[in-house]
Amino acid sequence: MTPFEQPPVRTEVAPFPHALAEQSFQELMAERLKQAPWLALSVGLHLAAGLLLFVLLPPERRAEAVHHVQMTNDEPLAVVEPPQEQPKLEPISEPTTEEILVTEQPVATETHDVVDASDFASEGTPSAFDSNLSQAAVGIGGNAGGPYGNRAPGGPGGGGHGRPFRGNTEPGLDWLKRHQDADGKWDCDSFQKHDDPGSNICDGVGNATHDVGVTGLALLAFLGDGSTLRSGPYKDVVKKAVHWLRRQQDPATGLFGQRTGHDFVYDHAIAAYAMCEAFGLSGYETLRPVAQRGLDYLESHRNPYGVWRYQPRGGDNDTSITGWCIMAYESGAFFGLVVDRQALRLATQWLDEVGDATGQHGYSRRGEGSARKAGDHAQRFPIDKGEAMTAVGLFSRFFLGQNPKEVQLMHAAADRLLAKPPVWNEQDGSIDHYYCYYATYALFQMGGNHWTTWRKHLEQAVGKHQHLDRRQPNLYGSWDPKCVWGEDGGRVYSTAILVLTLQAMHRYTRLVR
Fold first, then answer.
1. Cα separations in angstroms, 166 against 121, 174, 229, 234
2. Which residues pair with 256 in a beta bridge?
3. Residues contacting 332, CB < 8 A, separation 6+
4. How confident is the model at residue 509 (pLDDT cuts 50, 70, 90)?
5. At what angle do helices 486-502 and 433-446 cross, to 10 degrees?
6. 191 in helix, strand or coil?
7. pLDDT range class, residue 147, cuts 50, 70, 90
8. Where are the domains of the chain?
């Protein structure tokens, strides 16, 4: 074969799909049936798996149609603490109607809060009656109970016109009001500066060293009538007196006044007693430290394991000054101030030491009569004309919680007082306003025949010897100081203590029932 010759070409033609169709149906089925066992097995396995899943899986629960209304707020919620419940304060029924304006500087101590007199009119001041007192009966116009429950404001528009002796106490208070100094004190030896020069000037001057004591007595008389720092016809008189007494207190010791006489503690004790009442009855917390310091001084003055006399812790005791201290302590304790209860137990022990089965109570020892000043004082005012120490002892026993039903000596003491009723005899020296004051309070507490009989004598001896002649305007409402201690306190003393005496029926309730 030459290079130019082509080799013959062999051609094979692949079958087209339509050529497959030419195969018979039987042949195709035969081919598929050859693969049937494996296909059947696969189908069977899939069916078995599906059946297993159907059995194991719980059927789908159809949700019940529940209709809810829901409000949403995408803003974050603020957590608010519930407000703490504020203590409920008993409202003071005596509204403050005017501010007290003073110029003195506040007094501060290390142990008490600062006392600012301008705070007296603060409406937010809590009342002393909010404390948990043992005697919670409502009284004094809705403010206090216990021994002060009979008191209510007197004077014009007040509740006192139906009181016994109103015709005496109201002129007496008016005289005291007219003779109060602008700074608040009562001036024992210069009170006449307030008299009308066109009429007879008052006589009966006292000793200037007792201004603190007589101011305390006069303040007690206005408080006894129902006036306080908050209300009453003599509210302004009370304010001025309280301010003046505050200014007389030594902030370091608590002493009201100065140690200018041997009996200065009498003046302090009466002033402390008055301040305790002014604090408690008016309900001003700013007066608390003033009253408390007054009691603190009495405690520092008291004899260890004993009671009181003239000198601080001098070792001597007497019934007279102890009586005033008992009044101050019991008043302070009632109004929530701090007192040494042991002192009151020792006072009870002292009264037992100086008292006897006859009811008599001695001055500094059993059987001893009242004290008298040096000189002819005892001759001019014989001790046996009265029972002043017995009167002090009996009334103090009531205040200390003793009951005549349990203490027979108290009945005997009341009998002794009734045997020497009050009289007004300028010739025999029987006038003793101090005795009259304590005996009246003691026998009012006794009640019964003791009181009704004593009261009749009181009307004659005190009620009918008051100056009630309007032709003597300077004297009108006052009493002459022709009594045992009139030379010391003067006309201011006599008028203040006799107004207090005639207030016995409404100043305190019956302490023992």
1. 30, 12, 22, 15
2. 249
3. 272, 276, 291, 292, 295, 338, 339
4. confident
5. 20
6. helix
7. confident
8. 136-507
* Structure token digits, residue 292: 């408390």
Three-class DSSP category at 355: strand
What per-residue string of b and e applies to 260-298 under the rule 16 or more CB within 10 Å gives b? eeebbbbbbbbbbbbbbbbbbbbbbbbbbbbbbbbbbbb
Which DSSP category does 85 fall into? P
Torsion of CA 388, 393, 399, 404, to 10 degrees: -110
CATH numeric code, 136-507: 1.50.10.20
Q: Number of helices (H) and strands (E) in the chain: give both, helices first.
A: 17, 0
Question: Would you say 289 and 244 are in contact if contact means Cβ atoms under 8 Å apart?
Answer: no
Point out which residues pair with 221 in neighbouring strands.
none
* 268's tokens: 């302090």
* Residue 162 predicted with pLDDT over 90: no
pLDDT tens per residue across span 446-483: 999 999 999 999 999 999 999 999 999 999 999 999 99
H runs (alpha helix) in 208-336: 211-224, 235-247, 264-282, 288-301, 319-334
Residue 6 has which token pair? Answer: 């082509």
Give the rounded distance of the alpha carbon of 48 from its chain centre. 95
Burial-class residue 152 by CB neighbours within 10 Å (0-12, 13-18, 19+). Answer: middle
Phi, psi for residue 251 in degrees, rounded to 5: -65, -20
Q: Which of 381, 455, 385, 443 is nearest to 415 (CA)?
A: 443
Q: DSSP secondary-structure letter at 120?
A: G
Two tokens, residue 191: 């009170």
CA distance 131 to 195: 44
Residue 319 in contact with residue 393, Cβ under 8 Å?
yes
Predicted TM-score (pTM) of this structure? 0.74
Cα–Cα distance between 491 and 497 in angstroms, integer?
10
> Which tops the pLDDT comparison, 30 or 306?
306
